[in-house]
Design goal:
423 residues, alpha+beta, Phosphatidylinositol 3-kinase Catalytic Subunit, Chain A, Domain 5, 3 domains, 12 helices
Length: 423
């Protein structure tokens, strides 16, 4: 017996996700959708066509809508579903995913966006945050059908001023709520600092703020895949991470395990985006920033394509944490630079492999590296002062500042030598 979920792209039924008796997945675009002038592919990996797509392409994309690793296993356990059963999990929680897709049982249309929001008082919010460890995304909670990728426990919520609420039915969410990561001190302050620092350096990044529910601190990250209009309506913007776009299973997101590296990522940007030259430069600036703040976990699921129109652009930075501040975490970079993934061994020769072998391209890269490394220490110190004025302090921030000092000093040294050579 074949099981079917209808796949909706905003208000249009784009196609059907099917699972056969052997567990194999397939996706077929709806004939009416294909005939529409508004039809858009749901993924770079699945262009518009009548023929169905097979499991090898379909599973990586749809699995990529679900939580990763331990969060997925805990969610599956709470729902009584195998963690390997992507179809079964999406059947329960696939109503509000990253991007513009939602999945519902065959023949069932998405509920109205006006189904409402349950406003959460401080006590109820603290209770829900405590639940996330055992029930990621509140899977199985009545009226809640939310799915987000990533290994961290998180929750999609609606934010209106100081009010935070759970979306009910088909209402789009506006923010991602991220509590601290257990066994890692200061992750809320860490990510807040890194994202705000990126903004101060001119990198595209969602707005982020830190709040508390009782004694529990958490982040609120504004969703870049949602657009809030003046009349209060919310539009879902489609997005997909690099693994989804390249048909790479989420469990293989690290380059060392077969996931996309820098070369594959740049190739995707060249092939898929509306402004490949600008997005290549933007991606390289993101790589430099991840290096400077000590984030070794910038894997292919932490970069994405954002579809504001039919052809995507590179999505803003997200999920940036200084992992180098935690001795227990791996030091190897998720994506190698010039074949090297140990930060101390990456020199100018390795960085120059990111750009064409021309003096102009290399000069521009060296300038970007020097500019970011030259600005980041002053901006970090200014940000520390701003956070202190807001009453936000944690010992982890000093650790991050020390990492930045070491990395920036190294980049300035190797770029200074390059400038001297070019002169």
């Amino acid at each position: 017996m074949t099981h079917i979920l209808d796949v909706w792209f905003n208000e249009a039924k784009a196609g059907a996700l099917s699972q056969d008796d052997g567990g194999a997945l397939s996706f077929t675009y709806d004939a009416g959708y294909l005939a529409s002038r508004e039809a858009r592919a749901i993924s770079f990996s699945m262009s518009l066509q009548e023929a169905p797509f097979a499991d090898r392409t379909v599973r990586p994309f749809f699995s990529g809508l679900l939580p990763d690793e331990g969060a997925r296993q805990r969610l599956a356990g709470a729902l009584g579903i195998s963690s390997g059963n992507a179809f079964g999990l999406l059947e329960v929680i696939g109503g509000e995913c990253a991007g513009a897709l939602s999945l519902y049982p065959a023949g069932q249309a998405p509920p109205s966006d006006e189904d409402g929001v349950e406003i959460l008082g401080s006590g109820r919010l603290a209770e829900i945050i405590a639940k996330l460890r055992d029930r990621p995304l509140l899977g199985g909670e009545e009226g809640v059908r939310l799915s987000l990728a990533g290994a961290q426990d998180k929750l999609a919520v609606c934010v209106d001023g100081q009010n935070i609420g759970l979306a009910k039915g088909g209402r789009p969410t506006t923010h991602i709520l991220k509590p601290f990561i257990q066994a890692l001190e200061g992750t809320v302050e860490n990510e807040l600092f890194c994202l705000r620092l990126a903004a101060r350096l001119g990198l595209p990044v969602p707005k982020v703020e830190m709040r508390r529910a009782g004694e529990v601190s958490f982040l609120l990250v504004e969703r870049y895949d949602r657009s809030l209009h003046k009349d209060g309506t919310i539009t879902r913007l489609h997005q997909e991470d690099f693994c989804q776009a390249l048909s790479v299973p989420p469990e293989l997101k690290y380059e060392d395990e077969g996931g996309p590296g820098v070369s594959a990522s740049l190739g995707l940007i060249d092939s898929a985006t509306a402004r490949p030259a600008a997005d290549r430069l933007g991606f390289i600036r993101m790589l430099i920033f991840h290096y400077l703040v000590g984030n070794a976990d910038a894997h292919a699921k932490n970069y994405a394509l954002l579809y504001r129109d039919r052809v995507p652009d590179l999505a803003p930075l997200y999920d940036v944490v200084c992992t180098a501040a935690y001795p227990r975490l791996a030091k190897k970079l998720a994506m190698a630079i010039g074949g090297r993934n140990v930060p101390d061994t990456i020199h100018l020769k390795q960085w120059l492999t990111l750009v064409p072998d021309t003096k102009g391209a290399q000069r521009l890269l060296v300038k970007d590296m020097a500019d970011l490394a030259g600005q980041i220490r002053k901006q970090a110190d200014g940000l520390l002062g701003d956070l202190e004025a807001e009453g936000i302090a944690h010992v982890i921030l000093k650790e991050i500042r020390a990492v930045i000092e070491t990395r920036a000093t190294h980049l300035l040294r190797i770029t200074d030598s390059a400038v001297g050579t070019n002169e």
